[in-house]
## 1
Amino acid sequence: MHASAIATPAAIAPVSLPVSIPVRELLPWAVFGGMLLLLAIYFVGVEAGAMAVFNTMYVHEFVHDGRHLLGFPCH
Ligand SMILES: [Zn+2]
């Protein structure tokens, strides 16, 4: 039998080391995700009437249930 065919304890239960994620690499993605969340909150909560970016009611109607669910004033 070849030596590599023998199961070693490491092969049965491999040791998994935690992956360290540096904050400097994580920060731009956290800022990007935060901006996306702020944009989503804007479209759910404010996008209507005088504050509207788009001149139609499609965005407002699309997020209307979420608007009421989150307690934003609506109608
Ligand atoms: Zn409403």
## 2
Amino acid sequence: MADRSTPRYTVPSLTTQQGATVAAILQERLNSLTDLHLTLKHVHWNVVGPHFIAVHEMLDPQVDAVRAMTDAVAERIATLGTSPVGTPGALVAARTWDDYGLRRASAIEHLGALDEVYEGVITAHRKAAKDTEPLDDVTNDLLIGHLHELELFHWFVRAHLESAGGELSTAGETTEKGAARKAAAATGSAASGSSRTRTTTTAAKKK
Ligand SMILES: [Fe+2]
């Protein structure tokens, strides 16, 4: 559970209520980014087939960068006078999305699914940046800084899904499983069987 109590103190020039509001926004971002770096590591471990090593090695720097983002977000929450919540049970209880839907699967399927994951994380991060803009410039700047990297990583994923004409194979998809299927179909790869994918999820949109 997020700490919703009003802090006893916060950063100069914000009221404690404003500090609490910004910290609550950041707690959601902490949950999302923690989920993201764990998911990226899960893909690093479960990607198979052609392009294995390219995707396997592409993901570790993303894991490290996103982990660093979680640290900065958690420490900003503490700086604002509130307790950051970083335990796995609290994350699962608070999150509004399902677990990542693929297990062992091809590189192109994971990349299709990760396109949806990044779409959801970035959309929510941009909203958080907008929501903090009138309250706290420092938090807004922190989130904008993350977006520089997150949107770059999203492009790294999407570049694998893009045709020479600039079209994304996952265009119009809103689920990880659907995006994985379309990405695989575009390359002529066989989509993974039902044993490899789990329930369709709209989780990415909510992260
Ligand atoms: Fe590794």
## 3
Amino acid sequence: MAKRKDKRESDELYSQVLQLAVHALSSVPEDFRNYEGDRFLDEIQFELEALASPTLPRSPELPMMKKFRFQLLHRWMLANIAPCRMVDVGGGKGLLSYLFQQSDWHTTVIDPINQPLPTKYKDLTSNKQISIAPEETVTRINAEFQPDFAKDADLLVAMHAHGCNIQMIEAALHYNCGLILLPCCVIHEPILPPAGMPWIEWLVGYVIEKGFMVAPFRLNFKGQNIGIYARPLAQSLT
Ligand SMILES: C[S@@+](CC[C@H](N)C(=O)[O-])C[C@H]1O[C@@H](n2cnc3c(N)ncnc32)[C@H](O)[C@@H]1O
């Protein structure tokens, strides 16, 4: 019963953020929207149709996983974004960056707490545990996020990161880079959503208002699993 209620609430929230995004994208003139904006719109329409019709398969490229959030985000990004220079903000132990390093992306973890890579992870394709040797590393900067870290980046990514979502939005606008946010709780942010409004829903509205095209997505793991893929509208002009 509780599970069904959780699912219904998650579906309602996801539908709400999709509708915010589709409304914003539909009001962008076609010339500005470009190919990527049109693709965002198609994907959002597909997700909305899937939500409205339980018989349609959802996000068919994703298996029904309940955890493995790093592997699922890695897989989603490989399927949707061309290889680029990414910054993994609040990256914790660095598994997300490690997976992208294996995929030949250029990536740097930014996190004030220095943490070693995990010793193993599950590969979703082979369904096997893969060991990470003790001498393997990812590039990391042990510091709080600063806007300058976005200077040479194409994409800023934050999975459940604390204290830096608003700063990342400002930095992505300033340096004209893409943004992936999967926020969980609101911790040490300079702005708060109004009481009762989910952080993710408020963030989608905020990012749109700041001048990004936004494509929400949802990954199949337990916990806050709705993400935002956003590109500054200014990128459409370059
Ligand atoms: C909940 S953990 C998430 C870690 C990892 N991304 C994950 O999904 O497991 C939040 C991370 O944000 C980091 N953090 C806190 N304040 C930060 C800041 N101002 N800039 C960058 N990272 C920060 C913490 O050190 C911590 O590793």
